[in-house]
Specification:
mainly alpha, globular
Length: 288
């Protein structure tokens, strides 16, 4: 039977395991999912939207309709892979398998973390511009500009509904749910020799810290790389990679400290929402 949620923090560390019942030997029917399934999910999330968008580009001109279709394919792939992992290899519960739960405190934490991530991003942009000065007429693009095209209806659909509400929910479920926890599971089991609770507390502490730090880095990098194809030039790709890696790392830290996705989802919503708001409210000539 699954242990009560949220999972307990490992003694001597502030981190919580993805799902402790998956990480202890409970017989041949104990659910298992790890890095292999996370890697397969990443491949699917890249290929399905890419191939689908290329096919649709033959019948749809580039514009908000094609962007929306590409978003739908991405969201379907993310949710489909995560749902499959839970149904086939987990406890058939997105809450138990991936921590899809909310508490009221997540609203306050997410608001503060989302604004802090936006401030950190502004500092990163300033440093990048100082080290690599812009040429006349050159601008740094983010992926939000891509969604804010078309008339008001498409701006609301792609930019607000898609970018601010739907994308943060499904991206956190996939990246901090499946990918982060899959890598964490796999590294934990490898470092402990699949012995779970049989190892000493000292080995548990070292293993969970190492596994969690590596899972945070891997999942944040994967999250960043998934977004870099949205911009056309090297400078914008580097900026987008740094920005998405940063917010991914913030959301990942919140996930492993709380054992749930609530704060990470709110952080992601605030981060994307402030980005869209800046593009809509600030005159273009004042943007970098």
């Amino acid at each position: 039977m699954p242990r009560p949620f949220p999972p307990p923090a490992v003694q001597g560390t502030p981190f919580r395991l993805a799902n402790p019942t998956q990480l202890t030997p409970e017989g041949p029917l104990a659910p298992r999912w790890g890095a292999g399934l996370a890697l397969a999910g990443l491949v699917i999330v890249v290929l399905v939207p890419l191939l689908g968008t290329l096919a649709l580009a033959e019948v749809l001109p580039f514009g908000p309709e094609l962007i929306f279709a590409s978003l739908l394919l991405t969201w379907a792939a993310m949710f489909g892979v995560t749902f499959y992992a839970s149904r086939r290899h987990g406890f058939r519960s997105l809450a138990l398998d991936f921590g899809l739960r909310f508490q009221w405190i997540d609203l306050a934490v997410g608001l503060g973390a989302g604004i802090a991530a936006r401030v950190v991003l502004a500092i990163i942009l300033a440093v990048l511009t100082l080290l690599w000065p812009l040429q006349d007429g050159e601008v740094i693009q983010g992926n939000a500009e891509l969604f804010l095209t078309g008339d008001t209806v498409w701006l609301l659909i792609n930019g607000v509904l898609g970018g601010v509400l739907i994308a943060p929910f499904l991206e956190e479920l996939f990246n901090r749910g499946l990918v982060l926890r899959g890598v964490q599971n796999a590294l934990w089991l490898r470092r402990t020799g699949n012995r779970g609770d049989a190892v000493t507390p000292a080995v548990q502490r070292r293993s969970i810290v190492a596994s969690t730090v590596m899972a945070l880095l891997v999942s944040s990098l994967a999250f960043g790389l998934l977004h870099t194809g949205a911009v056309p030039d090297l400078r914008s790709s580097i900026y987008l990679l740094l920005s998405t890696f940063t917010v991914g790392l913030v959301c990942g830290v919140l996930t492993v400290f709380t054992g749930r996705l609530g704060a990470a989802i709110v952080t992601h919503i605030v981060f994307n929402g402030t980005g869209v708001a800046l593009l809509l409210l600030v005159p273009p000539e004042l943007l970098p």
